[in-house]
Amino acid sequence: MLVMKNINKTFQTGNIQTHALNNFNLTVNEGDFVSVTGPSGSGKTTFLNIAGLLETYTNGEFTLDGKDVGQLNDNGRSRMRNEKIGFVFQGFNLIPDLNLFDNVDVPLRYRGFDAKERRRRIEENLERVGLASRMKHLPSQLSGGQQQRVAIARALATEPRFLLADEPTGNLDSQMAQGVMTLLEEINQQGTTIIMVTHDLELAMRAIRTIQVRDGRVSELDVVAEKASA
Ligand SMILES: Nc1ncnc2c1ncn2[C@@H]1O[C@H](COP(=O)(O)OP(=O)(O)OP(=O)(O)O)[C@@H](O)[C@H]1O
């Protein structure tokens, strides 16, 4: 469970202060699929980076699975991030010289799993995203949608509780975007909590909850959840 209470984030650039988050409040429960929409510059990526422990916040309360994130130092944050969080980005961020197997292996090597366990996780997760038969291919030999699937397999290989996705379909045409969204829904149904930033309202509305960020705060909550239970 992720709880943010009155989170503020101010960036200082020279003399200019930017209040990226202003008393941002959000609770994300285990098993949620939350989509985050809102205008450009409203604070969506800042929120996601704080939620994913990539960035610190200026003040407020943030607890992740009951742990007070504000009490953690850099090492503590990294450990928690490695343990609990997987990321998917708009640009896939695959390593071009490595085949799919080796791309998914990167975070597993980093985490120190033995070769047998790594192989099990790589095969299982490439299977999950429908690319088990392409393990020896390079990213450049795949479509954009397939590359994003590999990035999702890589994120899932460490078995994170939370999958955070920043515009995961932003580089994909509509059909591929729908396919990636369907995959994310399956992953969510299998138990991973997902938070996804997107400009695509149609995709956003497919999530269990849709929130809108405006001027660094949550302005509207649970449109879809209300609709679904109506
Ligand atoms: N490292 C930084 N230094 C200074 N200002 C920043 C930094 N990162 C973000 N900002 C500012 O914080 C505000 C929120 O940015 P953020 O990237 O979170 O918005 P966003 O909603 O994700 O936008 P977009 O939809 O365009 O990606 C913006 O005004 C942005 O310029």
TrEMBL record:
GO cellular component terms attached to this protein's record: plasma membrane; transmembrane transporter complex
Domain ABC transporter: 2-230
Domain of life of the native organism: Bacteria
Key words of the record: ATP-binding, Nucleotide-binding, Transport
CDD domains noted in UniProt: ABC_MJ0796_LolCDE_FtsE
Molecular-function GO term, any one: ATP hydrolysis activity
Gene3D superfamilies: P-loop containing nucleotide triphosphate hydrolases (3.40.50.300)
Family label: Belongs to the ABC transporter superfamily. Macrolide exporter (TC 3.A.1.122) family.
PANTHER family named in the record: ABC TRANSPORTER ATP-BINDING PROTEIN YTRE, IMPORT ATP-BINDING PROTEIN
Protein name per its UniProtKB record: ABC transporter ATP-binding protein
Species, as recorded: Litorilituus lipolyticus
